[in-house]
Design brief:
The chain has about 375 residues and is mostly helical. Helices cover about 70% and strands about 0% of the residues.
């Protein structure tokens, strides 16, 4: 049941990100991808576009630590999951049927806030059930977070065409989690209370701060290493698939070879992204390796906050957003971005060594050897 639920939540993750990004792109007036220029065209004022994107980022990612704290306190995530799926699904379907929005006004900004809130609620609530299955391994986390990148790409490319269908899909997933049963097990998380972790330990602030720093500089450095050739819809999709594969593979790689094996991928990724930006195949390989660190970073943050794991999930998402937003506002030389990605890998590799609560770190199969 747990594996099936994780797979369904991952598919719902794709639709949630597709829906929210599609609405943002429709709101800011981007309705088609201009292939020769490899860009999205909009007639909206630049300030209005930036403000809408910033509102979305701050609400969809900035609220996650607070929602995570709520889930940790109440030990209940299912109502938030249902609310996010039905809320975003119904709103998207109505917007698609009414061909709305056509302009930026008070109502459309309110809808932007609604979609952003649903996105934040979904990530934390759905993540709570996946976290419960990630006690000793990070592979479920990689599977869950992987398809979000594909949803973002589809939302950017085909916003008007897919918004309604994505809304129907989200509402359908809400119904699935409410009613579907498998054998003698209940698939829906409505009856699944989020169990408190079995640790009676205090938070490890130093490794948590190091992981937050790693996520921040990875978000900034990665966003500042764009491809050096003309984009196309096909490449946007291939890049999203490469990112998704890297995230999923990173969880399995960490379970098999340990945290440092994943951290080593970041220096290699930095080289491929920085020096292979003009070669699509090399750049895509760099994207695969670059994204392998996401599940293990989340996994280590749970060990740093063993009694507040959902809060840790939200904190990591928030710092990733802050790094990405800063990269949109600040331009730095390529060597700075390259150095930041290297620094991120070093921080992830060093974090397990700083844990005081070694018992919170999952173990290798060989008894007594920490999985670092």
């Amino acid at each position: 049941m747990a594996k099936l639920r994780t797979a369904l939540l991952s598919a719902a993750h794709l639709l949630m990100d597709l829906t929210t990004v599609a609405f943002v792109y429709i709101l800011i007036g981007v309705r088609e991808f201009i292939a020769p220029e490899g860009a999205w065209y909009s007639e909206r004022p630049a300030f209005a576009i930036a403000a809408c994107v910033l509102v979305y980022d701050l609400l969809a990612f900035g609220l996650q630590p607070f929602i995570g704290a709520l889930v940790d306190g109440k030990k209940r995530a299912a109502p938030l999951l249902y609310g996010s799926l039905f809320g975003a699904g119904i709103a998207a379907l109505v917007c698609a049927l009414c061909d709305y929005p056509q302009e930026i006004n008070a109502l459309s900004v309110a809808l932007l806030a609604l979609f952003s809130l649903c996105n934040a609620l979904f990530h934390v609530a759905a993540g709570a059930f996946v976290i419960a299955e990630s006690e000793k391994k990070s592979a479920p986390l990689g599977v869950f977070v992987s398809l979000g990148a594909v949803g973002v790409a589809l939302g950017r490319l085909y916003a008007p065409a897919l918004l309604g269908a994505a809304g129907i899909g989200l509402a359908g997933f809400g119904a699935v989690f409410l009613f579907l049963k498998t054998g003698d097990k209940v698939l829906c998380p409505h009856f699944a209370r989020i169990a408190a972790p079995p640790y009676e330990t205090e938070a490890d602030i130093l490794p948590l701060a190091l992981l937050a720093f790693a996520v921040f500089v990875r978000g900034f450095g990665g966003s500042a290493l764009p491809a050096g050739y003309e984009l196309s819809p096909l490449f946007v999709l291939l890049a999203a698939l490469a990112a998704a594969f890297g995230k999923a593979a990173g969880g399995f790689l960490a379970d098999i070879a340990g945290v440092r094996a994943v951290a080593i991928c970041l220096p290699v990724a930095a080289c491929l992204l920085a020096f292979g930006a003009n070669w699509p195949a090399v750049y895509l390989m760099g994207l695969v390796l670059f994204n392998t660190s996401m599940p293990v970073t989340l996994w280590l943050s749970f060990a740093a906050l063993p009694r507040l794991r959902n809060t840790a999930f939200g904190v990591m998402a928030c710092f990733l957003m802050l790094g990405s937003v800063l990269a949109m506002a600040v331009s730095v030389p390529m060597w700075v971005s390259f150095a930041l990605v290297l620094l991120s890998g070093a921080a992830i590799a060093a974090a397990p060594c700083l844990f005081k609560n070694k018992s919170c770190l999952p173990m290798r199969r060989k008894k007594g050897e920490y999985h670092v």
